[in-house]
Amino acid sequence: MSSEKEENTVDTFPCSVHDSVSRHVDCVKIPDEINGTFHTHSTRIDAPSSNPWLHAANSCKRSVEKLVASSKLFNKDDDKDEKDFMALFDMNEIDLGQFLGKGQFSNVYAIESLRVQPLSEEKEKEDLLSPEEHARKFLAENVKRKYTNKSRYAIKFLREDLSRDPDLIVTAVHDLVLEAQFLSALEHPNIIRIRGWGAAGADGFIAGKNKGYFLVLDCLDETLETRIRKWAKENKQYKPNLLDSFRKKISPESEKLFADRLKVAHDITAAMTYLHKQNVIYRDLKPENLGFDVRGDIKLFDFGLAKEVPSDIDMNEDLYMMSGAGSLRYMAPEVVLGKPYNLKADVYSASLLLWEILALKIPYDGFTANKLVQDVVMKGNRPKLNSKWPSAIVDIIDMGWDNDISERPTMEIMHNVVRYNLTTKYDIALGGAKKPLKRRSMGSIGTVRSAFAAPRAASI
Which residues form the Protein kinase domain (predicted)? Predict the structure, then answer.
């Protein structure tokens, strides 16, 4: 049974007018392009012009205190190992390296060096065995990789140009501080690891403004967006010759590349399944928010729009009134229209992402925002599915991006389908010589389509 419940006010921060989406389709206010991340909010906070950073810091502290007080995720009783303690730094202890990228509100730089300031003699004795101080020293001594001299860590802080818009400052401050809270509470091999943050906490914004608070994260080599472009070029080299094409034969290299991409999809859905089991909805799943580390492992990052939902709600069934958030290209129809939604809004995004990873194409490429709303949100059109893909993968994508939220599978079911097909693909690609993942019973997902009666949407 579905119940519509109102979201608490913690998530009702302001946004710019051009990024807003109305709750009724007839007056949808759509951003000019479909790639950027945006939120809608039901309450505006009027930041005083005298010191918007002070206002934002105070507002943020109140919101976080309220959030933490009611959170199960942030109040776990797990015993902390020394490695779990955050390293606290001042900005003047950090030397910036290469510019790595920027988001809606933030810049990200590699950390060139960490100059841990000497402590006073009394303070040094007090902190000598402190886990926090050990964390500081460990990061400072391991900033660079031994053989490549590449940075291990990156710093994320707010952009300076936010100072021109007091409303955006409030939103950006909340997003960054809440991201730190989420990352410090989550632990999964495919979620980026946070190593530290600004020592002053949210109060750092008061004096330091955009650089007063920051996150220290593991460095990533490239985004999934970049990797997909590389895969597309590589895949073109493996096109079958005329005879193989006539026989519908796929080259071993192409088969192996497909299996590698399916492995990435497996790891992404594993991370998302973990989040959903923690009652966390991510709300901005897209290639730009996924990256590869030095070992080639995929990592989910940028938790600025993540939200913990009440544990007394079945968020795979019940609907919950939340602010519209995400990137329009990957945003579920119910979110675009300002309707109540649940964890399956993430399933919609994951389905589009899975299609993109396998098709090596951008979904709705060339669409304007208005065309996307009309063709995708209103008419239910979707990208064309490839009949050569495993039938279970085709079915799970098709169900996952259904306009009807109740017809979509859970993220865990999607993950299990990808996992099962991954073992099969690796067996084929590697001649049965390698089985990276143990095959498990499909159980109730043995016949995916029969498990969920969902009509196939029109293709575009």
Answer: 94-418
